[in-house]
Amino acid sequence: MSTIFSKIINGEIPSYKIAEDDHFFAFLDIFPIAEGHVLIVPRQETDKFFDVSNEYLARWLLFAKPIAKAIEQSFPCNRCGVSVIGLEVPHAHMHLVPINSSNDLNFTKPKLKLSEEQLKEVQRKILAAL
């Protein structure tokens, strides 16, 4: 059985891609908690974040670093926050979110409803900064 993230990676579900390599795929969260909210998922389906190998975990952070820097350059924020929750989809994933306070990483608050044009503009800003 394939997760929704695997379907996005395989192009079965459209996404606003930010970056990819042989191991990871980064794309915009279409129900973001802030403009610039990016998800990074491994191509290999693993349910829990800390079940990936140490080498894979290190690669994940190195893959995320330039994306986080691009988010910080593209949106007014104090820094790019990182969150790993993993309850909604059984496929390990990392959230990168522009934040100004710890409350900005509150996933229980209402999600933004961005139009396709707004999502494309967020994607354009991040890609331009990469």
Describe this structure in words.
By secondary structure, the protein is α+β, with helices and mostly antiparallel strands. It contains three helices and five strands. The protein has helices spanning 4-9, 54-74, 116-129, and strands at residues 17-20, 24-28, 38-42, 79-83, 94-99. Strands 1-2-3-5-4 form a five-stranded antiparallel β-sheet. It is globular. The model has no long low-confidence stretch (mean pLDDT 96).
Total helical elements: 3
The helix-strand sequence is HEEEHEEH
The description of the largest β-sheet is: 5 strands, antiparallel
Structural category is alpha+beta
At a glance:
This protein is α+β, with helices and mostly antiparallel strands and 130 residues long. Helix content is 32%, strand content 19%. It has helices spanning 4-9, 54-74, 116-129; strands at residues 17-20, 24-28, 38-42, 79-83, 94-99.
Question: What's the structural blueprint in terms of helices and strands?
Answer:
Blueprint: H1 4-9, E1 17-20, E2 24-28, E3 38-42, H2 54-74, E4 79-83, E5 94-99, H3 116-129
Antiparallel strand pairs: 1-2, 2-3, 3-5, 4-5
Helix pairs in contact: 2-3
